[in-house]
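User: Can you help me understand a structure? I only have the sequence.
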Amino acid sequence: MARVAHKDSLTTDQEKFVRMEANGTPTPDIIKKLWNKVPDDPEYHACECKLSRWRKHPKYEEVWKDEVRRQCFPMMSEGLKVIRQQMKDGSQPWLLNKAANDAISFAGKKIYGNDENTVTVQISGMPDIGSPDDDV
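Assistant: Let's start by predicting it. Here is the structure, written out as tokens:
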């Protein structure tokens, strides 16, 4: 039995839906798994509408990002392994250079965060803001 939905939490089915969607599961497969309905069923459209409403839940994006992040970590580890192999290979200098740049870029973002993307704008030479003089 699914738990009762609250504004600040998802039901078990809602969370399953979000995680399946974040993993790229097609909508018909999600509906089949959650409610055992296929496109020919009369209730199928109602299920699609329910999923559309669930996408608007305040916690949808948070759970979706959590699932994507969870899936990305193993892929990042595999990617780093490939970059390390490319850096050790050395038979193709251009590939070695690209792998080194990729490793530096990845490590910099992980170590220093996104601060390097911060832009500070300073405006100078503007007049002081105040009331006009009464010279008339």
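Now, to help you interpret it: The longest helix spans residues 60-89. The mean pLDDT is 82. Let me know which part you'd like to focus on.
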